Amino acid sequence: MGGKLITNEFEKGMEVEIQTEENESIKSRNVVRTFQKTEYPSDNLNKISTFSDKCIIIKIRDKYPSVYERVRRCWKNQKERAEQADYVLAVINGRVEGVFEPTQWYYIPIEECRKNVCESKTQSCGRIGFIGKEAGDEVQKKYFNKYIPDWYMRPGPGPVQYTY
Prior knowledge:
By secondary structure, the protein is of the alpha+beta class. It has four helices and nine strands; from the N terminus they run ββββαβαββαβαβ. It has two domains: 36 residues, no CATH class; 116 residues, Archaeosine Trna-guanine Transglycosylase, Chain: A, domain 4, CATH 2.30.130. It has a six-stranded mixed sheet with strand order 5-8-7-6-4-9.
């Protein structure tokens, strides 16, 4: 049964009203799904259409303490595959907030991993990081402050996507 939600209240236990395609109203309790889909702006002038470089897209939540510090380490990934990338794109809410050129990739030491990220009890954390610099002006013009295509922003098992 399809329908649309009439109220914006999503708390469990609240009574909500759902209007079906047949214009019937149904009152329901314990609605646990949200009916909103995240939509990114479809401004084609400000959207990346194709990637001409090998990029790693890393989705982050905020810029604190800096975009570089948020994006540069502790990603569960394969170092060998990451080393093929020309650039790392830091993405917040579908928009590129930082473009970096990695100069060195490394595995995160287990002590740092336990302290900062995963509190792993094993000897190998399996997370990587990079040391890099901001990309040049030409590359910044291509990617910075542009929106990522929807296909790369799909929900998945992790925040890291490859363009290659």
